[in-house]
Amino acid sequence: MSSSRTARERVRAELTREIADVARRQLAVDGASGLSLRAVAREMGMASSAVYRYFPSRDDLLTTLIIDGYNAVGEAVESADAAVPPGDHGGRWIAVCHAVRDWALAHPHEYALLYGSPVPGYRAPQDTVPAALRDTVVYGRIISEAHRAGALHPPGADPPVPPSFAGDAARVRELMPGVPDDVVARSLIAWTGLFGWVGFELFGQFDNVILDRATAFDHAMRCQARTLGLSI
Amino acid sequence: MSSSRTARERVRAELTREIADVARRQLAVDGASGLSLRAVAREMGMASSAVYRYFPSRDDLLTTLIIDGYNAVGEAVESADAAVPPGDHGGRWIAVCHAVRDWALAHPHEYALLYGSPVPGYRAPQDTVPAALRDTVVYGRIISEAHRAGALHPPGADPPVPPSFAGDAARVRELMPGVPDDVVARSLIAWTGLFGWVGFELFGQFDNVILDRATAFDHAMRCQARTLGLSI
DNA sequence: TGTACATCAGTGAACGCGCGTTCACTGATGTAC
DNA sequence: TGTACATCAGTGAACGCGCGTTCACTGATGTAC
After folding, report:
1. Which domains does chain B possess?
2. A29 CA to D24 C1', in Å?
3. What is the rounded CA–CA span in Å between residue B129 and residue B114?
4. CA(B92)–C1'(C23) in Å?
């Protein structure tokens, strides 16, 4: 009977999800290298060997968590972007910035797993790539649309783009169609600046120095918008 | 005899240093969470318990590595800065950027230890703070001197600095005396942008996208210089 | 609808490993008279 | 200068722990006739 077959499969899918959830909770407490299959099994109330019915190894579990994490950031960024009128490109940028930071503050260990030091001994498979690009796609769309709308007015001339940058610019341009090389360069700077700021805040570099972090962050990202040529 | 006393003390100091060196080498291979006192002892050819004569715990060893790491970056940044004429503030900024990136590429795991996700279960003591600020001090001096020399000409007006930023700006200003709040804000952006870029490059976010990394980095930091108002 | 068989989930014991840290000890090095 | 004593470095065994992964197994669930 096909309905009972899907019943078994549904249970399986649910348990798989539950294991990932438990693992994510442990990740949130102990960090990536503290994640262990045995601890997950313990919390699930099952034998450690049983987990292997669902994930063939610890690394596979980790890969799942990474993909889920990228998707979670991606979703947060997508809905933050969608909540702003499409023509308000500066507002969309700011919304995306706050979405990234808010998610990072809410899930620090998960953020560290995605954007921090790589887990020793673990090499991410290519499966993570599409999920990893989800937030970047949104960002690219904002820049691309702003450019097409003629809404980018950077305050000054950048140094001339070196010709050898062309190849990299072309690859990045797949995410922001129609945008010239100098805008690509500026966009990269703003994007890495966003994650650099969030990383500094999260990993302790701002301790005892920057205290009113929401204010500083918001202002910094508004400055970035200005530099990008977006009006806010 | 005081000379023999210092002889013993010299041996002790040397062994302490050697243990740290071995640990640093292992850190470079396995990353921070792969560092173990037992493995260090093994490579030193001594009993694992003997290491406790030199470092009271694994965390103390880690603290030493962190402090040494910050000092190494600091030194690299200091000498890069010193190699450029003091009046060439833009050149000094670029030199500092490359010093940070070069050091990071040469010591990726150590960089991750300093600027990446914190090691789970380890809390850095306050002893690391002065070393951690060494590179920042150099940066602050460049900005401060450029400002005093009237060499900062940012290309456009930033959004107005929110009044609640004043406290944080004052704290940062201890590292860059005499600099107004808006310059402080821009400086923070460029600084976090530098580390954000290096982090992206080191932790794999640029894989398959940015390939000619030296070119892209150099150009990006030159753009940052322009945004800061430095001439290059 | 009922029965024989195949598939799958979960168990529990085991393998082999490495870790941080403690502790009583042996020798060697330094100190005081 | 020589001897008795104190300090220190280093040993090796042990404690107690947790880990990833394998494997032969028991039952339960699903399938085919």
Report:
1. 1-56 (1.10.10), 58-228 (1.10.357.10)
2. 36
3. 11
4. 56
